[in-house]
Amino acid sequence: MELLSAQHIVVLLLVTVAAAVDVAEKRIPNWLTYTGAALGFGLGVALGGWEGLADAGLGFLVGFLPLLLMYAGGGLGAGDVKLMGAVGSLLGMTATINALLACFIAGGLFAGIILLWQGRLFALLKYLVSRMWSLVNARHIPEPLPEYKDSFPFGVAIAAGVYITLAAVVTGAGTPGQLLG
Question: What is the value of pTM for the model shown?
């Protein structure tokens, strides 16, 4: 069993506040993400010197870049991207990979639950099956994609991914997969 580090405590506070603000306001403010990233780099240097700075930088990139691609595709807001970068600077590269995977799984589960709750899950699944069938059968014209412009606060999924990752660290499980498996 491992104790939480200063970076772990800061990242827990960061994602908890970010998730609460994201739910309430449907945005994650710059002051929060920039402060989180600055603390991540500062603690990295203070506690680990050049090696800590490098780990914070790599963690930032590992968290930031995949979500930047999703933002470019219209799937996320800029606050989500900056929040995951700040999370990465606090967790370092390895833990950020685990948190990123956990937040994607959590986000998928949250989206599925929301679609099921709204009665739209089966229409989306029908579209996906039709789309896959059109890849196999060139003559098949796929169903049109249902028009939805709803969103959910992805900051909640990021927070869930961080909670799961840190639970794995504290319990000694190592990774979220080992914790859950």
Answer: 0.84
